Amino acid sequence: MMPSSITYPYPPPLNGKEEIRAFFEEVFEGFPDFSTKEGRVLAASNIVVVEHNMIGTLLGEWQGIPPTGNTGLTPHIDIYDFEGDKIKRMTTYFDVLGLMIQLGVILPPEMPSLVPSFTLPDPEPTGLSPLEANAELLARWNAHDMTGFAKMIRPDAEIMESAFGMADRDTFVASSEQLFQGFSDMRGEFVRSIDMGDGWVAIEVVFTGTHDGMFNGIPATGRSSTLRAASIRRFDAEGLLTDLSLYYDNMTVMTQLTASSFTDYGSGTTIELAVGKGIWQLNWGQGPWTWSDSTDQPLLDPNVSAILDLRTTAPADVSADLIATLPIAGTLTLSAHDEVYKDVTIGTMVLSGAGINVIDINASRVIVDEGAGMFLASFHPPDPKLTLTLEEATGVFAYINQVGAWELSLAGSYAVPLIEGLALQDNILTALGGNVPLIGGIGEFALNGLYTTDMSKKVKSFCEYGTGVSLRLGAGGALWDQTWGKGAYEWHQCDADPNAGILNENISGMLETTTAGAPQIDENFILSFDFGGNFALTDNNDINPDEITGQILGDVKGTFVADMNAANAIVDEAASTIIIAFGTELSGDPDALITITETTGTFGSIQAVGLWEWYVSGTITIALVDGLPLQDNIMAGLGDPDLLLGAEEEIVLSGSYYRSSP
Q1: Which of 181, 299, 568, 626 has its CA 20 to 30 A from that of 522?
Q2: What single DSSP character describes residue 641?
Q3: pTM for this structure?
Q4: How far is C-alpha 433 from the geometric centre of its chain's CA atoms?
Q5: Domain definitions of the chain by residue range
């Protein structure tokens, strides 16, 4: 149901002029006729609240969504916090779900008719001030007292709810009833309430609840949902509601209810540990642990490692029972490694957040190992945990969009040295005070949360086919001219997606290599030597071929393997040539590994994942010398460039990539 390329909530937090500029540049590319029509404006002190309608036609790509030609009109509310005459913060609220439906991107969810379950009573004046009436209105709503709630609303109140448009009192009450049917514990909590004058109040509020009933056609999931909203409302002299505009994004709720859930298990040890700081090396793809009852599918696998960098943010709070609670903050960096080239990172996720660690430092409960001269102070579920926000995802993780907060739960123990002559409890407290070097820590970890996927950023595997001709060839290196967009070769099996290609027949290539190290020849006259170099794939303008419109650049490291055995050579006496074979068919391994260093222009969105592999099957032509034994002739060609007449090859370039957002 969800457009896969949008991260929710949308827009994400934007910091600074450059991020704001980039955001609106993308909006204007997708909606060239974008415009806004300003509505009500309220101002008080340093706060300005503006209602407006955004209108635009999706004529270009936006957030990975192709043009639909449909027009969307979306009510917005913007809350500006000023510092002097400059905007310090702008918070905007609108319904992305409604916009997606209008643009034709998704179908509308199943919505019941909005009719209240009871006859609404006449209003009853409260005599409260606007701020007091506002608080009372929320209190009745939180109590799910719809009768009392309705009594605070004038029958002719003008109501606009962003998910439904203009509404009357009956519809507004019915929409709350429908929400309570899906979330029986739903309640709201003010972030801030501002008296804007003349009876108007502006609010920001967070709604939370557990999805335990049918909501918008989605059966109960048991998931928690959090929704942030903004509203302006007006109360008359009797403390009754006369006007209300409520803005929130239904897509946020729907995403939380339909997102995939995961739980991953890992274990690790500290690589640095001191009072107030600990760095852990973790490995994943383990468990499940006995202290977790999750049945969620994993997101990570055994090829993922992590560094968890933790620090305490305040002194420990020690209970009477000697349980130490430490506020902590830190960063979890997950790294996915190539299955074949283990030292190559093919994706990262960086998460940061805060939480608490809870350590049992009661001497009667620690585990003492006198032989090893240490004791173990444990920390165990359910209390020790971090709440984490995904800051960055690259490579194989680039398609992951976080939904809500993720949690990292911890269980394990710290090893602390025993101090001779010191009572155990005093030993523990001395260590906690930082006066004794700590030995280390061992732990189990569980990471869980919700996510959606942006399949436009999903990693794809590819194979590209080309041919090459040597422009320069010698013992010191070579220069190759290449053409691409060829068909598959029988000598190489490729399991990649046939539709994942990135090159065509208009792409040219250049590879320059330099020999690195002395050549080796085995008893079968198989020649091998290492080489390095660089390559470039170039896309030229169709109209002006001299104009480069895009390039893929990379560094190359490989091993050249050639069959120098005269018994396997092809001799053409009429042409006075000897032809020998080289390439992957002799070794079974890739001829080279490529590290992509830069992509530009038409290739600018391509993000290489891991190393790309280079396979060749080719021939070298050597001049036939009269009177020289054939084997000697071939060996002479190795050191005499005048005898090397040229070379040609078939090439397979394979690897993985994803496309980044524009």
Answers
A1: 626
A2: G
A3: 0.73
A4: 39
A5: 16-103, 130-258, 260-456, 459-659
